[in-house]
Amino acid sequence: MGASERRKGRRAENEAAALLGGAERISEAGSSGPDLRWRGRFVEVRRRESFQSMNQIVGELDGDASLYMTRTNRGDWYGVLRIVDLLDLLDEAFEEGHAAGFDDGLENA
Question: Which end of the chain has a smaller Cβ tally under 10 Å, C or N?
Answer without folding.
Answer: C
